[in-house]
Amino acid sequence: MSMPMLRPYGPGGEAGDPVMTEAGAISPFAPVTLSGDAEPRPAPPPGQVLHSPFAEAASAVGASDLGAEATGALLAELDDARFAEALEMLEDDVAARHLQSIGTWSSESAAPVLATADTAQWMAELAEEADRMLGALEEHFGDRPADSVQASEIDAVAGYREADGFTNPLTSQQLFLGGLLDKAKKLARGVGKLARKGLAFAGKLALGPLFGLLRKLVRPLLRKVLDSAIGRLPESLRPLATQLAAKLRGSGELSTEDTFAEEFDRELAAAVTTPGEAGRLPAGDPEFTGDDPGPGHDLDDARARLSRELATADPGVPPTEQLEQFIPVVMAALPLIRTGIGIIGRDKIVDAIAGPLSQLISGMVGADAAKLLSRHIAGAGLGLLGLEAGGDGTLGGEALVAAAEDTVRQVMTLPPESLGHELLVETEVQDAFAEAAARHLPAAVLRAELVGPDHGVWVMMPRATRPCFRYKKYGRVIPVRLTRPMARAIVLSGGETLERRLLESGVQAWPVEGEVELYELLAGGRPGHIAAYESADGANAAEFEELTQTAAMLLTGNPRLAGTHRHGHHRRAGGRYFRFRRQGRPLHRGHRQGFVVGFDLTAPQPVLRVNLLIGERDSHELAAQLQRRQLVQVVSTVRRLLDDAALQAMTTRLERLMTKHGITAPVGVGRQLAQRLADGILRTVSEQLPASAQTLAQAAQDPAPGATLTFTFSFADRAAVAAGTPAGDPAVTIRPGLHRD
């Protein structure tokens, strides 16, 4: 009797494939079967695109006057996550250029002003190019109505063609100009939709004046980016944005978390939709000057001065007067945490902090103490950080100053009511300084209970631009062995996981050996500053990711390394970042995957679109699964893209979008809606995607990187959006490339 052959793969699979059911479910058992040869499974029938990618038909809902709903609809149309990313990248690039320029000048006192002038000139050139592009649009389109233009015509007139981002990564300037051109298209499309709804004001708006309004707002925007990047405080919000916030949110305040891109959209929407307000836009172009280096450089000077004073102070004598001069400069450089200063009084707060802090520091002042600290710090991080031997006490003085600065910043996070209580402030100073000293000072001078098993110190960087420090670096490189579940639990920017980043970089076997470097922002610091002196291939801020508590625990075993700023934001002082290296090379973000969520509030019924951005690896994997009829695996692959990390990121995005567009939703609706969107996407994938194997295969084979699955949900009205109840499952469109529209 013949025995059946043991086959190393299941029905319809290839050699090495795991055993699967008819629908493609993977068996938990070893990849063998006791059956004989199976008949080859026929290929699935050619699929079709399930939803037209062309522009939607005109809506014909009448409306007689403009209200908050129409204004919110235009804001929704202008919303563009890609533009916000372009501005963030531009700010990092400007910050990097500014810091690198400081390092090229021999005069320590003149370097900040000269570097600011150089950077301002670079930004002015970008402003000129943006002005030329929008000026060409304004002149060409003139009195043409907003609904009479195609996007391709705008591209042709502007003379801008985006480079192939797959083979030639775009610069921050190219990304900004491309995003600005997209903004022009969105503006024309949004006003055109409002005109088709019957809004009289929209029908009177011609393209030329619209592009003129956009043009007027660009230079003030770039000036804000420049000021923020080099440490100057951006100008206050102008009345139009505040007025629109009042209209949509019911208050006259803009959130401190609003980005420059969101403020820009509000300014533009207010200028377009508020009659007579366009004339309140800036009459002249703000100059890009370099004569004011900003408060960040005042803090640089104050750090250097205090470091010298501590190194020459009398041992055992509290340096009260020196700290009284230093603390106000720290407070001035951290405006977002100065709550309560006006209530309690600056002098009273300074006295309350300087007294106890000077007593705590007094035991480590003087030349001998400074040299002792410097030798220990240099010995701990000399090879890693490229530190000098520190015989002159420089490192020791800087470490004490860094600990004092962190203490001030921590104390200033107390509620205003607590800042008025001397005992509470003194207690906070004691505890905050102990923690700060443990971060910056060597183990040899610390109490035993403050020293961990792998003690490391944070050193102010970069050394090449001293005394202009913008970040700190941890004095140890941390080896790590990542399992796949560990990598999956570490969520990176945009909801992507470290597992996904590693898979995209070519990882095929687990666990993964690597090493981690840690960084912390100082006041005025940006990821671009870190990239300027730490990036392996130029100023590439994409190498650095926010160090969350989860990431710190899994990568270092110490969640306390995640940060020191109790109420901070990761792009502010105290925010921490990490870089993961594998085989000596850092990981790059590459093409952003994940999803994009956006509302269309101009339609008769609100529409919400979710663009699921699928990278090269996953798009080819999906296409192969569909060709082999591994339908369970198709759904499983998509579900992995909608894991808990993605749902949390989608929840945050939905809540911000609803708030931004004046949609008041009960607590928890954002999470409920995110889950309903994910469930609807999976049902649509399960029911419709198998018929589109050929379409997805063509998208995967297209030269454009990755593929985009766009899921379009409709809602009965704005109340249904607020309730988080879409009207049924979505339609789906498949397109090659990663689209964020």
Task: Describe this structure as you would to a colleague.
Helices cover 49% and strands 9% of the residues. The chain is built from 27 helices and eleven strands. It has helices spanning 68-78, 81-102, 111-141, 151-158, 172-196, 200-203, 207-230, 239-249, 260-273, 295-312, 320-333, 341-344, 346-361, 367-385, 394-411, 416-419, 422-440, 484-489, 498-504, 527-534, 549-556, 616-627, 631-641, 644-660, 669-688, 693-701, 718-723; strands spanning 458-461, 471-474, 478-482, 512-521, 545-546, 576-582, 585-586, 594-600, 607-614, 707-714, 731-736. Strands 1, 2, 3, 4, 5, 6 and 7 form a seven-stranded antiparallel β-sheet that branches. A four-stranded antiparallel β-sheet has the order 8-9-10-11. α2 packs antiparallel against α3 and α10 (295-312) crosses α15 (394-411). It is globular, with a radius of gyration of 29 Å. The chain starts with 67 loop residues before the first helix and ends in a 5-residue tail after the last strand.
- What distance lies between the first and last C-alpha atoms, to the nearest angstrom? 64 Å
The radius of gyration computed from the alpha-carbon positions, rounded to a whole number of angstroms, is: 29 Å
What does the average pLDDT come to? Answer: 80
* Overall 3D shape: globular
Strand content: 5-15%
Pairing-aware structural class of the strands and helices?
alpha+beta
* Low-pLDDT residue spans: 1-16, 27-65, 163-167, 235-241, 248-254, 565-569
Number of domains: 5
Helix content: 40-55%
E-strand count:
11
The helix count comes to 27
Major β-sheet, in short?
7 strands, antiparallel
